[in-house]
Amino acid sequence: MQASNLARRTPVALMLAAVAALVALALGGWYWFTVHASTARQAEVAARGAQVMPFDLARTTHVFTDQPDGGIQQVVADDPADSAQIALIRSHLQAEAVKFQQGDFNDPMAIHGMTMPGLAELRQGYAQIVVAYAELPDGAQIRYTTSEPTMITALHTWFAAQRSDHGVHMMDHSGN
To answer: Cβ atoms within 10 A of the Cβ of 53, count?
Structure first.
């Protein structure tokens, strides 16, 4: 009897082992694809960003901080004494703040693509967001404020996409 029980269990055990191996292979492939796709995406965004942003991504850091009423986008020079980068950051963010207040998000679209998460909602509801530029000692920031829950969600979604796309050129202050 033991031999027949063993014979019946072996195909099941082999099938379970095969399924476990396939799952492990699939997860490993998913992990490899996710890491490499993300790295490739970040390189693509950096190349496009160099066409839109006048400062050097390798010498600056982007910071996207979610806030309960919107968010804060900062760009700072990695070297606080790098006055050339600081001037470029300030000039760019000041111009971007004016454009964003008018609903013009063409520069982020050029860098991140037309289907960037949150962007369509921001373009549609821009009038519900107060956009304020401010200088920082080592760069500048744009503060986005709104009381409209859908715009807060759009800003947080947009910030999350930027955090993902900017990779090594960014610091994550999302609270996630």
So the answer is: 20
